[in-house]
Design brief:
Elements (H helix, E strand, L loop, with lengths): L6 H13 L2 H4 L5 E7 L6 H14 L3 E7 L6 H12 L6 E5 L2 H8 L8 H7 L7 H6 L1 E2 L2 E2 L2 E2 L3 E2 L2 E4 L1 H7 L7 H13 L3 E3 L4 H16 L1 H8 L8 H14 L11 H9 L3 E5 L3 H9 L9 E4 L6 E5 L1 E3 L8 H12 L1 H11 L15 H12 L1 E4 L9 H17 L2 H14 L5
Parallel strand pairs: 1-2, 1-3, 9-10, 12-14
Antiparallel strand pairs: 3-13, 4-5, 6-13, 7-12, 8-10, 8-11
Length: 420
């Protein structure tokens, strides 16, 4: 906002400093604020940093941290659905920015338009235009992003690779060659965890197989899932699965990451919340204690997702929610949360001196790479497609039939409004 130097504005500034601006006076809030999320355990400290900041700004508000555990929000989304349909929404809830919110709760007319808050807070100037486009529609802006995560990242421990005589692959063919060496050493080449992580791995494999243009074409309905290109992506995924661990369904993503850290596995394709886990919980130094690269075959492409919060219609404590969203979108809030979460700020004016080497690297890539959306984390498709796709994935994990799975995926796409 430009500074005005008239006497009137100088006086107004003095009054604001003395008594507080309207936004500051809104800190005289009371009552409760229920925050619904799936951030628990190792991701809890990042959320707590936001809560601590909000409580400092709004000491009269009691924050109720309603966390439902479960990887990637699977359990939380089920509980949220019951509450939203039952007319008992939380004050604000975590949701992946994009179609996960828009195609579900905005479509059902259960969310308030936040355009007024974006304009009031000056966010139209500090959030990238492409990001605002993904969290909005022609009729409004529906959530406040707190971060940017990268989905297509492969993690490893440099000292372990050196011990095994392995270089970081840049393509899946290079990985397959390295995997044979690792198997001979009784090392799991690529660790996998419970079922949602199969969806997560698939999108990176599919991006490598299809390329960014065809990946975007899938979600625009311009390329069929059962096209030759679509079938080829499933064939590659099937080959990748041959080099994963047999006990995947019994592991959390943290336990899978632990296998990389302690040398039982070489690589793990996981979102960059893994960086937060390894740096904050495991106390490993980015770059030496753990390393990273774009997942094999996806160099120069940044598959993004963003966690965000919105304002449900009928929220019990609306004013408190607006204050919460204001904290989330602020520079102070962003830079308190993201260094602990392992993500980067959604704002363009973030203070990178507060971030570790991984985050600085991710920020640089986000600024220059081709940006594509994540399926597994709600950017490219609505929740209906994502729920149905879980069954498609189960089908493939059991059958490994690429053509039949591709046809099933196309049927799911048609059912959920993708394609014709």
């Amino acid at each position: 906002m430009k500074r005005l130097v008239t006497g009137v504005c100088v006086a107004m500034t003095a009054v604001a400093l003395l008594f507080g601006s309207p936004a500051a006076q809104a800190k005289d809030l009371s009552g409760q604020l229920e925050i619904f999320s799936w951030w628990a355990g190792d991701e809890g400290p990042a959320l707590q940093a936001l809560i601590d900041l909000y409580t400092k700004q709004n000491p009269g508000v009691e924050v109720v941290n309603a966390t439902v555990t479960g990887g990637s929000g699977v359990n939380a989304k089920a509980v949220l659905k019951t509450r939203m349909l039952g007319g008992e929404p939380p004050d604000s809830f975590q949701v992946h920015a994009g179609q996960e919110l828009i195609g579900t709760w905005v479509k059902a007319d259960r969310m308030e338009d936040l355009t007024f808050l974006f304009k009031e807070q000056g966010w139209m100037d500090v959030f990238p235009e492409g990001l605002v486009k993904n969290i909005g529609t022609d009729t409004g802006i529906w959530s406040v992003p707190v971060n940017i995560h990268r989905s297509n990242v492969v993690w490893y421990v440099p000292a372990n690779l050196e011990k095994w005589g392995i270089k970081v692959p840049t393509t899946w063919d290079e990985f397959f060659a390295a995997a044979e060496i690792l198997k001979a050493k009784n090392v799991v080449p690529l660790v996998l965890a419970q079922n949602w992580t199969a969806n997560h791995l698939w999108e990176s494999v599919a991006l490598a197989s299809l390329g960014a243009d065809n990946w975007d074409a899938l979600w625009a309905g311009k390329l069929a899932f059962d096209s030759p290109e679509g079938v080829k992506a499933w064939e590659l995924f099937g080959k990748v699965l041959e080099y994963t661990n047999k006990d995947a369904s019994s592991l959390s993503w943290q336990q899978a990451t632990d296998m990389v850290v302690d040398g039982r596995a070489a690589f793990n394709v996981m979102g960059d919340w893994a960086a937060g886990y390894m740096a904050t919980t495991k106390k490993l130094k980015p770059g030496s204690g753990f390393g990273w690269s774009a997942s094999f075959g996806t160099g120069g492409q940044f598959m993004f997702l963003a966690d965000s919060f919105g304002l449900p219609k009928g929220a019990p404590n609306r004013d408190n929610v607006i204050a919460w969203l204001s904290t989330l979108g602020s520079k102070e809030g962003s830079d308190a949360f993201n260094p602990l979460k392992g993500s980067i700020s959604a704002r363009t004016d973030s203070d990178l001196s507060k971030y570790n080497e991984y985050a600085k690297s991710a920020s640089a890539d986000f600024g220059k790479d081709r940006i594509v959306g994540s399926l597994a984390h709600g950017v490219t498709a609505n929740e209906g497609f994502m729920n149905d796709f879980a069954s498609v994935m189960e089908m493939f994990l059991k059958s490994r039939n690429a053509e039949a799975t591709a046809k099933a995926a196309q049927q799911v796409a048609m059912k959920n409004g993708i394609g014709k």
